[in-house]
Write a structure and sequence with these properties.
The structure is a single chain. By secondary structure, this protein is of the alpha/beta class. It has a single domain, classed as Transcription Regulator spoIIAA, CATH 3.30.750. Strands 4-3-2-1-5 form a five-stranded mixed β-sheet, with helices on both faces. α1 packs parallel to α2, α2 packs across α5 and α5 packs antiparallel against α6. The chain is globular. The relative contact order is 0.17.
C-alpha cells in the first residue's frame, strides 16, 4: 500500500440485498464521511438489509474511522432487519479496535464465510467510488467530533486520550459555524 494520497479509497456496490463497501489503503477521517453517508442512505432507502465492509485491503484505521464505525453499529442495531459487519479484518486492525473498545460494539470477522466470498467475487462490475467532499469543513469537523464522542461513550477511558481533540473540534465547530 502507498503512503496515503490517492491510495486510500472507498468503493461500494449492491449485490442482491447486500451493500458491500470495500476499504483500500488507510481507513481515515478522509473516507469516514462518504462511508457514513452511504450506509445511512442504505438504511433510509432500505436498499439492502445487510452491509458488509471488506477490510482486506485496509492497512490501518484512525480514531475517526473507528468512531464512525461504532456510531454506525449503534444506528444499525436500532434498525430491525439490518446488519453491519466488518469482514477480512487484519489482526493489526483488530488490535486497533480493541485498543479503543470498538470491538465491543462492532460485529467483525478476520475472515469470510463462503457466501461472503461469493458476494465479494461478484462486486467488481457494479462498484462505485465513494469520493470524499473536502469542501464542507464544518460537516467534516462535526463528523470527527461525533466519532470521538462515540469513542468516549463506549469506553470512558478514551476521554483521557481524546480530551484535547474534543476541545479543539468543539472550538473549530463554533468558529466555522459563525463564518
Amino acid at each position: 500500500m502507498g503512503s496515503g494520497n490517492n491510495q486510500d479509497n472507498l468503493t461500494a456496490a449492491y449485490i442482491d440485498r447486500t451493500a458491500v463497501v470495500r476499504v483500500a489503503g488507510r481507513a481515515s477521517f478522509k473516507i469516514s464521511p462518504p462511508m457514513r453517508q452511504f450506509i445511512q442512505r442504505v438504511i433510509e432507502t432500505k436498499s439492502a438489509s445487510r452491509i458488509l465492509i471488506d477490510m482486506s485491503e485496509c492497512c490501518g484505521m484512525d480514531s475517526t474511522f473507528m468512531g464512525v464505525l461504532a456510531g454506525l453499529s449503534f444506528h444499525v442495531k436500532d434498525k430491525p432487519g439490518f446488519t453491519l459487519k466488518l469482514i477480512n479484518l487484519s489482526e493489526k486492525n483488530q488490535k486497533l479496535l480493541t485498543t479503543l473498545g470498538v470491538d465491543q460494539v462492532v460485529d467483525y470477522s478476520l475472515s469470510t464465510t463462503r457466501e461472503e466470498k461469493e458476494l465479494l467475487a461478484g462486486q467488481s462490475d457494479g462498484s462505485q467510488t465513494l469520493e470524499p467532499d473536502f469542501s464542507n469543513t464544518l460537516e467534516a469537523a462535526k463528523t470527527t467530533l461525533e466519532a470521538h464522542e462515540t469513542l468516549v461513550e463506549i469506553n470512558p477511558e478514551n476521554l483521557v486520550k481524546f480530551k484535547s481533540v474534543l476541545e479543539l473540534l468543539q472550538n473549530d465547530i463554533r468558529t466555522l459555524g459563525h463564518q
